[in-house]
Amino acid sequence: MTERFERAYNALLKAFMNDTLAKGTCVACAVGNIVADAMGGQVMCSTFSEGTIKGLDYECNVRNSWWSDLFVTNIFGRQTIYTKKEGRYVEKYRKDIFKLTGYKWDEMAKVEKAFETNTKILYVEYPTHTEQQIMEDQFNGLMAVMDVLIKLDDVAEGQKYKDAFKTKLQLV
Fold it and tell me: For residue 172, is it within any domain?
């Protein structure tokens, strides 16, 4: 197992166990949690009320969504890769993501696409689903992410790491 795999795996496991993983928000998706953890940050979830509808909001104590200036996957599974963006420093961000995570930007783009296309429930819809439904949905996304990470680093005992996520499913 490589150091970068271990760091990413631990960040994702922590996010899943602490309910700070969410589809559809750059701050709390798989890449957002990996980047936040690499920066020493903490993703948090708070409940807010809009009239009579309760919702969730994800935030981080460090700016961890800058990577979305490199790539983004929309709710339909289409990924956009930015080669240049007005007023943004794409090349700097590409170097930053590698320096922080050990993964190249295009490897992290694969991680993001795996999570976003293998989950169905957007974080804004979480209040209308059960905890079990959300957890199972996130689990599906995480298994796809783990497949990508395992393949990138040729991790021999990949299933062992994937099985660790099942612990939370068994608790509920």
Answer: no
Q: Are 143 and 165 in contact (CB under 8 A)?
A: yes
Number of domains in the chain: 1
Burial of 64 (0-12, 13-18, 19+ CB in 10 A): buried
User: Can you tell me the distance from the alpha carbon of 80 to that of 111, in angstroms, rounded to the nearest whole number?
Assistant: 14
Of 77, 45, 47, the C-alpha closest to 61 is: 45
Strand partners, 80: 72
| Domain-embedded: residue 108 | yes
Q: What are phi and psi of 55, to 5 degrees?
A: -140, 180
Per-residue pLDDT of the chain (172 residues; tens, 9 = 90+): 899 999 999 999 999 999 999 999 999 999 999 999 999 999 998 876 555 456 678 999 999 999 998 999 988 889 988 877 655 678 889 999 999 999 999 999 999 999 999 999 999 999 899 989 999 999 999 999 999 999 999 999 999 999 999 887 765 5
Domain that holds residue 158: 3-164
Domain-embedded: residue 133: yes
